[in-house]
Every structure is written in structure tokens, then in C-alpha cells.
Write a structure and sequence with these properties.
CATH topology of the largest domain: Rossmann fold
Protein name: Amino acid/amide ABC transporter substrate-binding protein, HAAT family
Strand order of the largest sheet: 1-16-15-11-10-9-7-8
InterPro entries: BCAA_transport, Leu-bd, Peripla_BP_I
Order of helices and strands: EEHEHEHEEHEHEHEHEHEHHHEEEEE
CATH superfamily of the largest domain: Response regulator
Distance between the termini: 34 Å
Strand content: 15-25%
Keywords: Amino-acid transport, Signal, Transport
Largest sheet: 8 strands, mixed
Family: Belongs to the leucine-binding protein family.
Radius of gyration: 20 Å
Length: about 425
């Protein structure tokens, strides 16, 4: 049962950001995501959050296993699955046993398949894939494997929570769905169509469209179709430059309804929307920033801003990933035996500083957590994004979203 609470340039060589470390870390994590190209700001901000989490949550508190230090090493994949596989091999060759990635489910699908094959062939150099943001449902369904853990909610879980909230808005009678043409965009479309039909068959889907990812320079033709459709609301899974381009164009072409999104915050997006997005942009997310989830989270965020004055914590799940990995390493008593670490992650319950309990579901390695629907605003914020005065404020919460949702995963354990 759902409980909705209402609120007011590299190829075979890795690109290592931050140059060489001052120490030789005992535990290294490879961050494989875009650090150049159109999605560089998203990837770089994510890397900074991972680096800070390792320092603040682990090294500054004495490390793990009686003082072992942790370091996050950045590898630029240029948002390319092929480049990602090259960087994965570089990381493995460097002895790194923990891989984090999140931007693009296409990349995640390539990585999880490659990691499963590597681990079967090389039991002495196995690695774990900690997926912090790639939300194609297949990754924890038919493509699941023991070595993959997802710390974000998948696209279906997010859409389930989002549509629960949308159907309560009786002004929404027509919806336009638009997204990027790859696995994630298709998953968002499929879930939106299916769930709207099941929950509110009276709501009409008046548009369902995909566009090339990272290649559209002018979204005006798409925006005009949205407006002419008579839609009362828009659903999009777009992220990065595609989210900003689409959203700005829709608003500038006269659309006045809510735009329900997965990734319309931070990395310059919030500042770019500014006043135009107020009470218009809505975001499904995990972790509470406004209001802040705890005083511990407030202290961490202020410390982050001291180090990165122009940065945002717009992916609280990154800190959950480091926190849960750290707990699993301590419980396993080792960071070298990734099977033991993975076993400790399975069924883990973790109290997040961002609010609420987290549960790593053992049958598919999908993290279950509260989901929030928030609104772009400049009113009543604990923390803004992009030093813009605007941020995302919670309006509704679905507790432990999709805890009992089915999965087609048939987990094979080593």
C-alpha cells in the first residue's frame, strides 16, 4: 500500500580529474561518466559529489577497516558505451574493484554485461558495479546480475510515484510524453502510458515522441507540437542539455501547465530556468533537500559548499552509495573480496541522512526508498541550486515506493 504524504579526450588512457592524489588510497572507486562534451557539467558535478563523499564520510572520519582510505578516480567515457568499456578495462588493470556510473542507461547496459563476463573469466579480479543513476528497469529485471547494484529508483518506480501524484490533479486531462531516443527514454514512455491507463483511463495521451539524444540544437518544433496538442501536462525523462533545451523551449512557446521531469535540477539547469520555471517544473527524486533531511545533512551540504562554492548536491543518492558501500566493507571485513562486500550489500537497511530508511532488495539489487515530487521555486528553501535563489521543494512523498513491485530478475550468485 502506498502512503502519500502531502507537504506544503582520452581513449585507452583514463582521464583522471584532480591530477595525482597526495596519498596512495587503499580503496579506489572508478567513476566512469562524461567529463567532456555536452553532458560534461552533469558528469563533473557528480564526480565532485563522489570525491567529497569519500573524503567527508570516510577519510575524515578515520577511514575503513582500521584506517584504510578511499579515493574516487574519474574516467571520461564521453557518454559512449564503447569508450566506457575501454575505461572499464583501464580501471580493472589499475586494480580498481568498485565501478560507479550513472549517466546513460545505454552505458550502464554495456558495463553490466561486460562486468558479468569479466567476473566469470577472472575470479581473481572481480569488480562490483554500483549504479547510482542509470534507471532502465531492465538492469534489475531481465538483465540483472549479482555484480550490479542500483542506488537510484528505476524508471518504473519513479513513474509509479509520479503518476500517483499526477492523477490527484483533476486539472490534468491530456498529457504529452517526450524523451530521448534510447533505452531510458523508451522506458519512461512505456511506463507513463501503462500507468496512466491503469490509474486514470480518462486521461488522454495526446503525444508520445522521442528525439535524438544530445543532438537537438533547437527544440522549437517539438515545443510547438506540445502546445498545439492541447496538453495540460508534460512528462519527460530528459537530462542534461536536453532537459534544459526542451523545457526552456516548451515554456517560451507558451505552455503553461506542469512539466513533470526526472532530472530538471542542478548542473546549471535550475539557474537557467530561473523565474520561468517557478511552479511549472516538477521533479521526481529521492532524498530531501528542501526541507533538509537532517542536521547531519545540513552540515555536510554546508561543508560541500565551502569546498565547491559553485556546486550543488543534486544527487543525494551518491552519498547513500558511499555510505552503504562503506557499511558493507566494514561488515565484510574486507574491500578486496567483492563477493563478501556484495553479500553484505544484499538486504542492507540503511538510515539515510537525507531522510528515511533505504533497503537493498536482495532479489534484484534494486534500492527501495522514499520518492519525492517537488516543485521549482524560490520560496522556503533550505538550499538553492546553482546559486540562483531557486531550488526544488518537496510537495509530496511516496514512502518506500514500489517496495512490493514485481521483478523478472533471476539472480545467479557465485
Amino acid at each position: 500500500m502506498k502512503n502519500i504524504t502531502k507537504f506544503g579526450a582520452v581513449s585507452a588512457l583514463s582521464l583522471i580529474i584532480g591530477a595525482s592524489s597526495a596519498f596512495a588510497a587503499d580503496i579506489k572507486i572508478a567513476f566512469i561518466d562524461p567529463l567532456s562534451g555536452p553532458f560534461a557539467s552533469t558528469g563533473t558535478n557528480g564526480l565532485h559529489q563522489f570525491e567529497f563523499a569519500a573524503e567527508y564520510m570516510v577519510n575524515d572520519k578515520g577511514g575503513l577497516l582500521d584506517g584504510k582510505t578511499m579515493e574516487v578516480v574519474g574516467f571520461d567515457n564521453k557518454i559512449s558505451p564503447k569508450e566506457s568499456l575501454i575505461q572499464l578495462q583501464v580501471a580493472i588493470d589499475q586494480g580498481i574493484r568498485f565501478i560507479v556510473q550513472g549517466n546513460s542507461s545505454g552505458v550502464a547496459n554495456a558495463l553490466t554485461e561486460a562486468i558479468e563476463k569479466h567476473n566469470k573469466r577472472n575470479p581473481d579480479s572481480r569488480v562490483l558495479f554500483l549504479n547510482y543513476a542509470a534507471v532502465d528497469p531492465a538492469l534489475t529485471n531481465e538483465k540483472c546480475n549479482f555484480w550490479h547494484f542500483r542506488f537510484d529508483a528505476n524508471a518504473d518506480i519513479k513513474m509509479d510515484a509520479l503518476t500517483d501524484v499526477m492523477v490527484e490533479n483533476k486539472d490534468i486531462k491530456k498529457v504529452y510524453i517526450i524523451g530521448q531516443d534510447y533505452s531510458f527514454g523508451k522506458a519512461v514512455s512505456d511506463a507513463a502510458n501503462r500507468m496512466l491507463k491503469d490509474k486514470a483511463p480518462e486521461i488522454e495521451v495526446v503525444g508520445d515522441e522521442l528525439h535524438p539524444i544530445g543532438k537537438v540544437k533547437d527544440f522549437t518544433p517539438y515545443a510547438r507540437k506540445v502546445v498545439s496538442s492541447g496538453a495540460d501536462a508534460v512528462i519527460t525523462g530528459n537530462w542534461g542539455a536536453d532537459m534544459l533545451g526542451l523545457g526552456k523551449s516548451i515554456i517560451e512557446n507558451g505552455f503553461e501547465g506542469p512539466i513533470y521531469t526526472y532530472y530538471a535540477a542542478g548542473s546549471g539547469i535550475t539557474a537557467a530556468f530561473g523565474e520561468s520555471g517557478k511552479d511549472r517544473i516538477r521533479l521526481i527524486s529521492q532524498g530531501s533537500i528542501n526541507p533538509i533531511g537532517s542536521e547531519e545533512a545540513r552540515e555536510l551540504y554546508n561543508a560541500f559548499l565551502k569546498k565547491y562554492p559553485d556546486g550543488n548536491i543534486d544527487q543525494s543518492r551518491i552519498f547513500n552509495t558511499i555510505g552503504m558501500l562503506s557499511q558493507a566493507i566494514e561488515e565484510a571485513g574486507t574491500a578486496d573480496d567483492v563477493v563478501a562486500v556484495a553479500t553484505a550489500l544484499e538486504s542492507m537497511e540503511y538510515e539515510s541522512m537525507w531522510g528515511g530508511k533505504l533497503f537493498m532488495r536482495p532479489q534484484d539489487h534494486q534500492l527501495i526508498q522514499d520518492m519525492h515530487v517537488g516543485v521549482h521555486t524560490n520560496d522556503g528553501l533550505d538550499f538553492d541550486y546553482d546559486q540562483s535563489g531557486y531550488g526544488i521543494k518537496n510537495e509530496s512523498t511516496v514512502e518506500m515506493a514500489s517496495m512490493d513491485s514485481p521483478t523478472t530478475c533471476e539472480m545467479k550468485r557465485p
